[in-house]
TrEMBL record:
Gene3D superfamilies: Outer membrane efflux proteins (OEP). This is Outer membrane protein. InterPro entries: OMP_efflux, TolC-like. It comes from Sphingobacterium wenxiniae. It is found in: Cell outer membrane.
Length: 450
């Protein structure tokens, strides 16, 4: 009776496991990548940085134009004061009113080409931020590939585990019947129950792994965890044929021209070069052109000849003034600040140059490793197919012997365990091969799709 209850409990658990994986909206790998790029907050953050650089470039260009400002003032003074407008000392207990307005402008007509070089530097910085957006997109794309294939792998492992549970339960049912008629021992029956329990644990682990990998994929796509989606499995045979003739040199040259990290390293070197030009500009003199126009009023303003008080309109007309000038500022000694700034700029350029070479070297190593991994994954998948086939044959043969009483339950349990492990390994190696192939597509800029 206890064994029957246990058997039914296993059946309920398996049924619950099957119900957990539901079928919903079908999403391909390409669609998953596009959804992530459209919704992911990391992309938005990188784009904000690009927009800030756009404003910095606009600001640098605007620095070439003259500035223009207008000002006005109105002051009241009580008691003793010197009226600078009328040029007299004001005495007595009374209020004096002063007012004025001014329009002024200035422009640096030469500054060692620093402003021009700053514009060029900001243009390069804009390109750097654009490649940063591409880099974030690439990183997210690789994350989607990883999680998508991981979810498919765990889903297929779950399906395999579910089939294994069904086989184990069928074996348990047969052994229970044989036990009742005396053809199987209690040890055989216990061994069958143990196999069912082991397979139940496998299906629970597979279910949990599938749920977690699917959740991570939904989070990348900024989807609600409750959204029900179905993933599309790749065609393994076509993928194996697609990457059969992958070569290192061809892959590396394509990666050099498509990977944003290489492009970004080149732009960083160009930016460092412009910073040297900006630092050199500090050694040149600065020539500034300026001008202003204004007028003023005082309540004590009087006509010089008649000494009659002048009206507001008369004062604004007669007190107007225009000032224009040009200034030359030639730096002689500034406590070696310019010298140090230039030296730092040159060091930064050498560092950027070295970083570019390092980025290319790292990409070279990565591509070489990716191709080795792809070829190794291909060999592993082929070997896992052979291993699964032989394990299946061995299990089938041993089961026939067990059914006629020639083999014992421990031998059957061992053969079934080996067969199950071989199937799980084959599934993992299959999608490992797909992942390694998609990594190659990622590095050479091919569309990521099945």
């Amino acid at each position: 009776m206890v064994r029957k209850i246990t058997f039914h409990l296993f059946s309920v658990l398996t049924l619950l496991g099957f119900c957990t994986i539901a079928y919903g909206q079908e999403i391909s790998l390409e669609e998953a990548i596009q959804l992530t790029l459209n919704r992911n907050l990391q992309i938005k953050q990188a784009r904000f940085g690009y927009q800030v650089s756009e404003q910095n470039l606009y600001e640098a260009k605007s620095a070439l134009y003259p500035n223009l400002s207008v000002g006005a003032s109105n002051t009241y003074n009580y008691g003793l004061a010197f009226d600078q407008i009328s040029g007299q000392l004001i005495r007595g207990n009374k209020w004096t009113n002063y007012a004025g307005a001014q329009l002024s402008s200035s422009v640096a007509i030469f500054q060692g080409f620093q402003k021009v070089n700053q514009i060029k530097a900001n243009k390069v910085q804009l390109l750097i931020d654009a490649t940063e957006v591409e880099k974030v997109e690439n990183d997210l794309t690789l994350s989607v590939i990883t999680n998508y294939l991981e979810a498919i792998t765990n889903g297929e492992l779950y399906e395999a585990a579910a089939q294994q549970v069904q086989l184990s339960k069928e074996q348990l049912r047969q052994d229970s019947i044989q036990f009742e008629v005396g053809n199987k021992t209690l040890a055989d029956l216990a061994q069958s129950e143990n196999q069912v329990a082991t397979d139940e644990l496998n299906i629970m682990s597979s279910q949990n792994a599938y749920d977690l990998s699917l959740l991570e994929l939904k989070q990348l796509m900024e989807m609600s965890p409750d959204t029900v989606i179905t993933l599309i499995k790749p065609d393994i045979e076509s993928i194996m044929a697609e990457y059969a003739d992958v070569s290192y040199e061809n892959t590396f040259q394509k990666a050099l021209s498509t990977q944003p990290i290489i492009e970004q390293a080149g732009y960083n070197r160009q930016l460092a070069e412009k910073q040297i030009d900006i630092a050199k500009g500090a050694y040149y003199p600065t020539v500034t052109l300026s001008g202003s126009y204004g007028t003023n009023y005082t309540s004590e303003g009087r006509d010089i000849i008649t000494q009659q008080k002048m009206s507001l309109g008369e004062q604004l007309d007669q007190n107007k003034s225009f000032r224009g000038g040009i200034s030359l500022d030639f730096p002689i000694f500034d406590n070696n600040r310019r010298k140090v700034a230039l030296s730092k700029a040159k060091i930064n350029y050498l560092q950027a140059e070295n970083n570019e070479a390092l980025a290319k070297r790292n990409l070279e190593k990565t591509i070489a490793q990716a191709i080795v991994d792809l070829k190794f994954a291909n060999r592993q998948y082929l070997a896992s197919q052979v291993a699964f086939h032989t394990a299946q044959v061995a299990f089938d043969a041993l089961k026939e012997r067990y059914d006629v009483g020639v083999a014992n339950s421990i031998e059957l349990f061992t053969a079934q365990t080996n067969r199950n492990r071989a199937e799980f390994e084959m599934i993992r190696r299959k999608y490992e091969l797909v992942f390694r192939g998609k990594v190659i597509d990622y590095y050479i800029g091919n569309p990521i799709t099945f």
